[in-house]
Amino acid sequence: MIKKIFAAILVATFIVAGGTVTAKSLWVDGGTKSLYADKKARNVGDILTIVINESTTQTATKARSNSKSGSISVGSGTGIFDFIKAFSASGSDSFKADGSATDTNRFIGQITVTVVEVLPNDNMIVEGTQSIWQNRDEHKITLRGVVRRDDVTMNNTVPSTKVADATLKFNGKGPLNAKQRQGILTQIFNFLF
After folding, report:
1. Hey, what's the torsion of the CAs at 178, 182, 184, 188, to 10 degrees?
2. 3 state DSSP class of 115
């Protein structure tokens, strides 16, 4: 008897509540990602992190040398040319220049970028900007390039060495950065001279 009353209460509860029971799928609608899929970036608007570890070294050494010398001697004239006195002349010219330059740069950091376009071959064009302010100085990193989906790690990161057609810009502005630039007069003198 108690079982029948409990069953009647349960049926009445479903009828009062609307009686609709829905089931949800374990897979995302559209079937693009399964329950077991990783969270790698693959579509426009997805984000991923580029791990920047770049180093460049340029060395140039130049040496130039050039020399030239010449001499002439004339004996005294005879006969109608006795007005010509004996003389000699010589001259030389030399030039030598040496120069060398070495430039080493190292950039380490991370920047999170957004997929802005997916190409027909499934490569992704990514772009992102990171701005860091410190003591009224802004340090801005901008990155744009092409990433293969296969190069995205399980942590949703890509090493900067795997970014094709990469453009990496480091800019800064503020009081400290302004002091590191040449003044206008110095720039004018460097331009003129």
Report:
1. -160
2. strand
Number of other CB atoms surrounding residue 147 within 10 Å? 21
If pLDDT is split at 50, 70 and 90, which confidence band does 31 have? very low
Nearest-angstrom CA–CA distance, 147 and 8: 62
Q: Which two tokens stand for residue 176?
A: 């400290």
Interacting residues of 36 by C-beta distance below 8 A, sequence separation 6+: none
Cβ-contact 93, 68 below 8 angstroms: yes
Residue written as tokens 């349960």?
10
**Strands of 47-74's sheet in order across:** 157-159, 47-74, 87-118, 124-134, 137-147, 164-173
Please state, in angstroms and rounded to a whole number, the distance separating the CA atoms of residues 114 and 41. 9
Query: Under a CB-based contact definition with an 8 Å cutoff, are residues 171 and 132 in contact?
Result: no
Tell which wins on pLDDT, 71 or 81: 71
The token duo for 156 is 């949703």
Give the max Cα distance, the chain.
161
For residues 168 and 161, give the distance between their C-alpha atoms in angstroms, rounded to a whole number. 12
* Whether 162 contacts 124, CB under 8 Å: no
pTM over 0.70: no
Do 111 and 49 touch, CB atoms closer than 8 A? Answer: yes
Q: Is 143 helix (H, G, I), strand (E, B) or coil?
A: strand
